[in-house]
Amino acid sequence: MALIDKRLLVEECLTIIRKIHKIKAPEEIKEENIEILKRFSTYAQLMEKDLDELAKLSKELRAELDLFTQASTMSKQQLDG
User: What total of structural domains would you count in the chain?
Assistant: First the structure.
């Protein structure tokens, strides 16, 4: 079994850590992830409100359409009658 050169291992680990930190510090990445999760939560809440509003509008439009249909039917019956 080959012996591990600890100095080379440490150097390799430090090189990897430096490369990671060049991309971004782990703390910054964590903060960005938290911010993204907050935005997603807010977005989901807005979508729920939008869906509720759409359902409400759909019911109102259905009621108006029903009234229009009834009025149209009554008008036609009066003309035929």
Answer: 1
The CA distance from 34 to 41, in Å, is 11
pLDDT digits (tens), the chain, 81 positions = 466 788 888 889 889 888 877 887 778 888 888 888 888 888 888 888 888 899 999 999 999 999 989 988 888 888 876
Q: Is residue 59 part of a domain?
A: yes
Using CA of residue 73, residue 74, residue 80, residue 81, what is the dihedral sign? positive
Residue 53 lies in a domain: yes
Distance, in Å, from the CA atom of 70 to the CA atom of 57, rounded to the nearest integer, reads: 20
